Fold each of these.
Amino acid sequence: MSVTIETPRAPQGVRRHRRFNIEKWGWIYMRASGVVLVVLIFGHLFVNLVAGEGVKAIDFGFVGGKLSQPFWQIWDTLLLWLALIHGANGMRTIVNDYANNRTLRIIFKGALLAATIVLILLGTLVIYTFDPCPAGAPADLLPSFCPAN
């Protein structure tokens, strides 16, 4: 008795409609964002911990000085967005693997999406609206780079 198996790439009688494959794009995103995150994280750690005076120099003035420069605003925004989305995508994968109940899976993914959106919005808001030199603040509490009022 002989069994014939058609080649896997043989054209089928009915062609299926191709849909957006979120698992494939999630997998690709995890690899691409992981590479970029390694560069961003090590750059962040180098500037904050190695360059300059090290850990003892990190204070309100240091952070305020960094966040007053557009380069560091973009750097920190990329770090924030990529890390949060990377982590949320990993959590989505865990929810898909371990939540067997469809309703529970939808609730978990909805909560994960809501938390990610809120954290991205709040973090981005802080990065771009942070003012290390607020008007009316006592001069002795302001960082050294603030102009005297």
Amino acid sequence: MRLLPTLLAGMVLLVAILLLSNRSLQHDLNIVGLQRDTLTVQLQQREQLITALNQQMRQREQAELALREDLSTANQVMQNREKQRQRSLHENLQTRQWAGTGLPDDISRLHQRPAFSSASDYLRWLSTGQLMPDTDQQTRNK
């Protein structure tokens, strides 16, 4: 008879251990479920981000293609104008002579300026610059 109460006590102890283990496993299952949900949300966000980035990449590629086409068109226009200019120089003696003359000294100096390392250097250079000659004065290259 003593065996039955011992067996019963052992069974109760075993059931208690199983219940505690079950609670622990349920808790772990709940945590894993929350982690799965969090990871699912993060995955969806990343997929949306990838989709947006792919769309931006396609838009930039299209814009780059349009810019390349514009550049090509501009180059063609420039080449056509250069050919037209060369033709006019070869056809007309006056135009050829005019194109061969140098700019007046005052105009040439307008194209000369030192290299600047900052905006303040440029402003300083502007403020110390020489004044333009009076337009009533005769130029030296006339």
Amino acid sequence: MTIHSFFIFDRHCNCIYNREYGHTPQSIPSTSSSSSDTIPGQINKNNDSNSSKLLFGILYSLKTISNKLVDESSINQLKSFNLGQFKIHFYESLSNFKFILITNVEVEELSSVLFQLYSEYFIKYVVENGLSPVEFSETGEYSKINNGRFIEETDKYLQSLSIF
């Protein structure tokens, strides 16, 4: 069981954070810090790639379809779905930030983990950070989350999970 990727999209459909985890010794070292216990992988390298745009499109389409299948009186939420050999876990905050984890198929639903990432780490290190932008732009310096503390703490939290 493995976590492969972690994505955050803002309310304007922009990928503002992308973390890919390398679970093999040949992986590219992390750029988040210079310590020897960093998790291998890439940070914010594929924010503008077609794969992140396709992922957002799939989630948007599935969420729209699932909402149209039920009557208006019931609450219907897309939490996870399988796609080939991967399972995609999804959480959307009230402010329309979308948190996505991509794992192996065997992993149980991770909505509580995604809520924890939002409520404990995103709120604390991004939203409440006075130096962080209120709105993320499509390009430029404020187009993605580069907060080292946020990256470090989310990596520690995800690494502490038994599925990592």
Amino acid sequence: MAQMNNITRSLLPPLPSGNETIVDNPTATAVGALILSIVFLLGFPGNLFIIWSILARARKQSVTTLLILNLAIADGSLMGLTPFFIVYLVLKNWVFGNVMCKVLFYLCLVNMYASIQLITLMSLYRLLAILWPQRVASFTGRKTVLRVLAVVWVLVMIASIPAMIFRRVKHKEKNISVCDSFHDYDSHVVIQYTMELVLGFLIPYTIIVVSYIRILRRIRKTKFGRRIRSEKLILAIVLTFCLFWLPYHIINMVQVTWALCPAGPVKTMLDKIWHRSRAVTSSVAFISSCANPVLYFFAGKSYIRREGLAFMARLFEGTALESASRKIRQNSQNCSREKEKDADAVMLKDKEADSVTNSSSNVKPVKNGK
């Protein structure tokens, strides 16, 4: 086996001498390995529990439930990959081969894209449920939602292909290998990381922010102006994803700036920044996938005594019922207005009838033609 590894390393392209890699900083790799270990212990069983709760305990799979199920699948898949990266950071050596280097980082990017796109769909669905509660059911049927989810997964798989193209293993001195993005031209760096920023952050977060601005404005105009639990929960998911993925995208932009910057002291400084920060910021990004089960736990803790292990399923059903109750309240408001109009019309008719009878009673009867 050792001889095979030596042969494999001899076939890998070497790194230029003096080039720094993302595993060269012992502090960064130690912190990254610690973060990933905690994330795995919390996030992997947590997301599996969410998937089990929805599939086995949910009485009805609403739109919100289906979106949360797919989000848990994306997060759980990402958590399942963390042991490989923990080993990589601890050993400071990629021992899994070139194919796994491409596949694992491709799957990471797929699940990153999937998570933010699913959160975007959640925000859009809440917006539709608030603005057009009577029409939302007509275009959010189960088949339609499943088709939309299938399209989302296909698109994120296509968008993640650059990770397989640019990611590969190279070997350093002392039989040490690294799995990193190696680009033949600086333009490749710009394309890959700008694409991640635009598709994985700027576009979806613009949609999310606009959606929640409209949602909050609409809620304030209604009598039921308080933000109910489902809005708070989804808003917490959105903010959590932004908090933990923002450092990763900032380092991406530092690397893009480094690629565009001419040779000089600034380029050297940027090179050190992104190399030394990549391991930590990538590990911090993984926290967002273990944070959602924690958020669901605190949001649904009122169900624990009553429902036991099914508390998570009842929570997701509750978020769906809140949308339905909003529709019922609005329909009841409309019905009450129509009833008031009908009552006013009846009162007018009664008044007219009374006036007619009163006028007829005032006319004296004529006797014997006189």
